[in-house]
């Protein structure tokens, strides 16, 4: 009983969750070119510009085709 009471008196230690795994976009750290389009991505410290890539071209095409009236 005394062990149980002693255990209850101690503060509850909640383990910290592991840090999030975030991929660093090294292509956003390079030189900016006026011939390339960029999109803004939100970070903890603000926004960063990421070059428009093939994935974003596919997303844009899908959204454009979905918005067109049938």
Distance between the termini: 74 Å
Counted by DSSP, the helix tally is 2
Radius of gyration: 24 Å
For the residues shown, what is the average pLDDT? 79
Low-pLDDT stretches are: none
Oligomer: single chain
Strand line-up across the major sheet: 1-2
The H/E string reads: HEEH
Shape: elongated
Instruction: Note the beta-strand portion.
Output: 15-25%
Describe the largest sheet.
2 strands, antiparallel
Number of strands: 2
Helical content stands at 25-40%
**Which structural class should the secondary elements be placed in?**
alpha+beta
Describe what you observe in this structure.
The protein has 70 residues and is of the alpha+beta class. It has a domain at 34-70. It has two helices and two strands. The protein has a two-stranded antiparallel ribbon with strand order 1-2. β1 and β2 form a beta hairpin. The longest helix is centred in the C-terminal third of the chain and has 14 residues, at 54-67. The chain is elongated and about 75 Å long. The termini are far apart. The mean pLDDT is 79.
């Amino acid at each position: 009983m005394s062990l149980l009471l002693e255990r209850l008196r101690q503060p509850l230690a909640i383990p910290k969750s592991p840090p999030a795994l975030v991929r660093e976009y090294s292509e956003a750290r390079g030189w900016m070119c006026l011939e390339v389009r960029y999109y803004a991505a939100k970070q903890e410290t603000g926004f960063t510009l990421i070059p428009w890539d093939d994935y974003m071209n596919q997303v844009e095409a899908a959204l454009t085709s979905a918005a067109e009236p049938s």
